[in-house]
Amino acid sequence: MEKILVTGAAGQLGTELTQALVEKVGAQAVVASDINERAADRFTCAFEVLDVLDRDRMEEIIDAHGVTQVYHLAAILSAAGEKNPLFTWDLNMKSLLNVLELAREKQLNKIYWPSSIAVFGPGTPMVNTPQDCVMDPTTVYGISKLAGERWCAYYNKVYGVDVRSIRYPGLISYKAAPGGGTTDYAVEIYHAALKGETFPCFLEKGTYLPMMYMPDAIKATLDLMDAPEENIKVRSSYNVGALSFDPEGIYESIKKYIPEFEIEYHPDFRQDIANSWPDSIDDSAAREQWGWEPEYDLDTMTSHILDNLKVEK
Ligand code: AKB
Predict the structure, then answer these.
(1) Do 113 and 58 have their domain in common?
(2) Are 49 and 155 in the same domain?
(3) 112 classed as catalytic
(4) 196 C-alpha vs ligand 1 centroid, how far in Å?
(5) pTM of the prediction?
(6) 8 Ramachandran zone, left/alpha/beta (phi>0; psi -120 to 50)
């Protein structure tokens, strides 16, 4: 029987992916882990406190639960990473190498590790960014994700580790807050709209970025992990696209439901990061090799979020 360990399970992606895995394979087949011990009661599956830099503890959990797959989500994101570059490098890289080494030693069946559009930079073609192109990330997060992609490809080629990865765009969800990303404005804006507050946007209008609604991100992840091994030709990380909009676009979408909503623009240091990232993504490799196709457009996402956040407030 497969047993899945999720690291960073209390984060924005982890919260929903862990729940989706529990629904898919059953609570007995999933172990959530996070550095935040207070997160334990959020999960219906087993929970372990784990600092992903602690390789021995990771190994102990893998052995104790008979783990066969790891979804290694713990990471420091782009904006937060710029405040502590060396620690971000250490955490993002060492934790990935801990997972890859344990996968090699223990011959784990599959590893999932998220990359990001942050691997791209100012030299990258900005519109319909290809799978393979110039990659010159300007953030420490982006540098760590690009290096991580190469390590994943290396462990697959040299040791046969079945590690799979997606370059997520900005992920938008209403269930768990993102932390420290450049795309977080596209989550915060919905909360402000429902509270009747004017939204102070930290990116300028006209800043187009690739984005994705969380249910599509979960679907992409599970579809990639379910795909037959021989279909997975990209062993660094797959481009996946869904939405592309600027702050004005998401604001106009919300105004269709909340006409009195107001936005103000106060760009900060995150503007430079956003300017270095693509506007939109060419995801033809993911579509051809494992059937990727998003479901939500901007307005269906907005209406879904506003309906569900309203219920929760
Ligand atoms: C961030 O903004 O840092 C993340 C990402 C695009 O990887 N959401």
Answers:
(1) yes
(2) yes
(3) no
(4) 26
(5) 0.97
(6) left
